[in-house]
Write a structure and sequence with these properties.
673 residues; alpha+beta; Beta-galactosidase, Chain A, domain 5; 8-stranded antiparallel beta sheet; 5-stranded antiparallel beta sheet; 24 strands
């Protein structure tokens, strides 16, 4: 008794003084105690909100998600939970247990179906059965939580609240106990290590886990400090702290670290709301930081909901969207992004800010894939379709996107400039072009995360619509530490948008010079004549050694319907609904070829086209692209050169434009008439 009392007093004193508790030792033998004070609001909603949520789920926008919840194969869930779960498999099996728990506990709470309650109770039991809630260790002994432990803490906390009347007293105590021992401390350990990387005893994969692709984690406390894998433990720790605030002696200390970590992370979103890891990770990351701030406000009255530019970040998600035929959640997929992802955070922003653009995103962009959207949706908010003022954007991270609208038929051009980021590719100065519902200049999807897999090649410059020098791209890492950032930098040095045109120049010299010291200049100027004419002007200068330069153009073939042809003057890319013709004008003779990336066929067939210009110290290459609906002819292109000025005349789909560009200028002057 004396030992326990002394331990409690010491812990209480440390907490009161605001001193960081040991990230390794949790309080032994913790037993939940009754909450003190008045009853608190629900974490995400109150019982009185359930009728409103039920009505929301009837709306067409949310009905598909709700059907996926209530019509889930519960017998398959039961079979998995009874006989198939591997208790040393967190990457797949523990993830599925957590997903089942969230889905069924929400379905029962809103729909009242006892069948879902039965499965939810099974999922709770299986999660409690796991010895650890994540598959990473600190100091070879203590579990640290990056995804699975935070996500489990969140799911178990929601289940405790939502299923409260259907849980026995003993089960509720055990759930709280395991959140306080397996969940929150693991999250705390992770955030503590990111805050004090010099104190980390070493992060490694748990040898008891069967995860097959371990990487070197020595620098992860530094690397992950600016990635989505910081926000997930912030949310998990914060939710666990809010749940156990008056029950666990360490909860206030957990909350302090969660708040300080959230404040430290918030600048990872640009002042305009952009997010470096790409739009797929944007939704996941913005959702978790929003969830933590909202739950903390509702349960404890602590208001940090102005921590970042939430209206701006919803506009980032909107402007990175790219509706495409057959891909309703398609996006400007620089890096590992593949889809816009869940846009539920837009519903929260719309409600809190009375924001009609955020309401448009809630109701019209991508898909609703989680319960957060219907929980936060406020039907009283006006919907406003975004206008031309949002068609052209240069984000704070120097990614540029230009478009003609928001529907499937609209054109989108995107240029990847800017600096390094987690989940990036070697893609500086690469371009995506979508028109008439089709991806016509493509950025391949499904690149490998583990560097040991052959489709790691899809991360490299040669798999992007970008420049190679003597067959080599710009600097990139070898992947032995994961999908972390490289050193490659590019910068937008000219940006001139207008209602009908865009001129933008990006300098990627430093990124290429890191692998080839002879590089003097690598710049790409993009001229977009909306909606279907695109010019790329590439300037590559070398100091002393003549080099060949290759331009790669990637063909979208995710459905097996991408075709291409090479011609003496350029190339043709064919998609079912549209084609793109490219005409090459180069300062040295060039040759066209086509090829396939060396990826396994079960991953996909990835074709590309290449224009190779002969050896020179100074390459000037113009690519004139026209997009056209399938079955229709492309327009006329002609060009002349006078001194250093290249003049191109394009007559296409009712446009007749003359573009003049001074190729000798490092920052080319562009004239459009």
């Amino acid at each position: 008794m004396r030992s326990s009392r002394r331990r409690f007093l010491n812990t209480a004193a440390l907490t009161a003084a605001g001193v960081a508790l040991s990230p390794w030792k949790a309080i032994a033998g913790y037993t939940p105690t009754p909450a003190q004070g008045a009853a608190q609001r629900g974490m995400l909603f109150d019982k009185a909100d359930i009728p409103r949520i039920r009505e929301t789920l009837k709306l067409p926008r949310f009905a598909a998600y709700w059907r996926s919840v209530v019509d889930a194969d519960l017998e398959a869930d039961k079979k998995f939970l009874r006989t198939e779960v591997r208790l040393n498999n967190h990457a797949v099996d523990f993830l599925r247990v957590r997903q089942i728990l969230e889905r069924t506990s929400f379905a029962h709470t809103i729909g009242g179906d006892k069948r879902h309650l039965e499965v939810a109770l099974m999922a709770i039991g299986k999660m409690l059965e796991y010895k650890k809630w994540d598959y990473f260790l600190e100091g070879g002994e203590f579990t640290m939580g990056l995804q699975r432990a935070p996500e489990a803490t969140i799911a178990m906390s929601f289940a405790l609240e939502w299923l409260n009347d259907d849980l026995s007293g003993d089960l509720k105590k055990e759930m709280e106990k395991q959140i306080g021992e397996k969940g929150a401390p693991a999250c705390y350990r992770t955030l503590y290590g990111m805050k004090y990387p010099d104190r980390v005893r070493g992060w490694k994969f748990d040898p008891e886990s069967d995860y097959p692709y371990p990487v070197d984690m020595k620098r992860w406390p530094l690397i992950l400090n600016s990635t989505n894998l910081k926000v997930i433990p912030i949310c998990g720790l914060g939710v666990g702290a809010c749940l156990l605030y008056d029950k666990h002696p360490q909860a206030k200390q957990w909350l302090n670290l969660a708040i300080s970590s959230a404040k430290a992370f918030a600048p990872m979103f640009g002042t305009d709301g952009c997010y470096d890891e790409g739009v797929s990770y944007w939704g996941y990351t913005a959702l978790h930081i929003t969830m933590f701030l909202e739950i903390m406000y509702r349960t404890l009255g602590i208001d940090e909901r102005g921590l970042m530019n939430f209206p701006g970040t919803v506009r980032y998600g909107l402007q990175m969207s790219m509706p495409t035929i057959g891909k309703p959640d398609d996006c400007v997929n620089f890096g590992d992004a593949s889809v816009v992802g869940d846009v539920s955070v837009a519903a929260w922003v719309a409600h809190r800010n009375r924001d009609p653009i955020a309401q448009y995103v809630t109701t019209s962009v991508s898909e609703i894939k989680t319960h957060y959207g219907p929980i936060w949706y406020d039907p009283s908010i006006e919907v406003k379709t975004p206008g031309p003022e949002l068609y052209d954007v240069r984000f704070a991270n120097d990614i540029v996107v230009s478009r003609t609208g928001w529907d499937t038929d609209s054109s989108v051009v995107a240029l990847r400039s800017g600096g390094p980021a987690n989940h990036e590719h070697a893609d500086r100065n690469s371009v995506i072009f979508k028109a008439y519902g089709e991806r016509l200049l493509h950025d391949p999807l499904k690149a490998a995360y583990p560097y040991t897999l052959p489709h790691w090649v899809l991360r490299l410059t040669e798999a992007h619509t970008a420049v190679l020098i003597n067959g080599k791209g710009h600097q990139y890492h070898d992947g032995h530490e994961g999908t972390n950032a490289s050193w490659a930098e590019a910068n937008v040095i000219q940006y001139k948008p207008s209602p009908h045109t865009l001129v933008v120049t990006s300098d990627a010299t430093e990124a290429y010079r890191l692998v080839n010291p002879d590089v003097s200049l690598v710049r790409r100027t993009v001229v977009f004549l909306k909606p279907d004419i695109l010019l790329l002007f590439d300037r590559v200068k070398l100091v002393s050694a003549k080099s060949k330069v290759q331009l790669r153009f990637q063909v979208y073939n995710g459905d097996g319907k991408g075709e291409s042809e090479t011609m003496q003057t350029g190339f043709l890319i064919k998609r079912p609904q549209a084609t793109l013709r490219g005409t090459i004008i180069a300062s040295t003779p060039f040759a066209m070829k086509s090829g396939l990336h060396t990826t396994p066929k079960d991953i996909g067939v990835y074709p590309y086209l290449e224009a190779e210009a002969g050896e020179s110290l100074d390459h000037q290459i113009m690519t004139v692209c026209t997009a056209q609906r399938a079955g229709k002819e492309h327009g006329k292109i002609s060009h002349t050169s006078k001194g250093s000025v290249i003049t191109v005349k394009v007559e296409h789909n009712g446009q007749s434009k003359t573009i003049s560009l001074n190729g000798e200028e490092d920052l080319p002057t562009v004239s459009i008439i």
